[in-house]
ATP-binding cassette domain-containing protein (Billgrantia antri), 252 residues
Amino acid sequence: MLSLIDAGFTEAPTLAPLSDHLEPGELTAIVGPNGAGKSTLLSLLSGYRAPGRGSVCLDSKPLSSWAAVELARRRAVVAQKLTLGFDWPVRELVALGSEASPEEVEEVLAMLDLEVLAGRGAQNLSGGEAQRVMIARALCQLRLGRTAGVSANSVLLLDEPTSALDIGQQQRLMRLLRQLAERQRLAIACVLHDLNLAARYAHRVWLLERGRRIAAGPPIEVLDGRILARVFKAKLVTSRQADGSPLVVLAP
Ligand SMILES: Nc1ncnc2c1ncn2[C@@H]1O[C@H](COP(=O)(O)OP(=O)(O)OP(=O)(O)O)[C@@H](O)[C@H]1O
């Protein structure tokens, strides 16, 4: 389990101290306006920045105490952009540095609709294709191919993974993430700008405002129209979908 214990940053970009954890089996959406601190919080959860106060622990052990190889087996991070120094073929790039078998790599490629791109160089992919390649890399890193089954209680952290995806790919990805969380006991945290994706697919939502988490809970509690209108300074209309999840649209 990944836990924040009174953890935050005292130097810019600051983050007010927070105690909570990412629950195995759950997808947590991190939402909030531009500059609210979502990526900053992800850098805290991932261990990319050491907390200025408190601690971040995976299975009760501070992230900084984990050996790099062990941590890589348990925690993967998907950044916003794919940066490449070399034009790797997609299949090789996805498998790079992972312990996944060739069969698991093929499964992961299929999970992200990447089979037809597997032999292509990754440097000239479209934005949405490159985004799916980055996610596939993280799934291989954690060995989340359907036949692997070695990923229990791993942690997957994603920064705006749907930002370049078309609506169909968004749906497939969010369904996949929720399924992975539930079936493989994965703890997933995912920065999202689309509140309706958070409403439909997340088990929990963390709402950030000006470097502070101001609400956390099930989507139906956190995605309250009046709170969202104030935090995002937007005119919104909120209603309920057939399954009871909130629906947030812009008012005319
Ligand atoms: N290295 C830094 N030094 C100082 N301030 C920073 C630094 N990096 C980010 N910030 C500031 O910290 C705040 C939070 O940034 P962060 O990237 O976490 O926001 P965000 O919620 O992810 O925003 P967005 O939705 O625009 O991606 C912003 O005001 C940003 O300008």
About this structure: The longest helix spans residues 167-184.
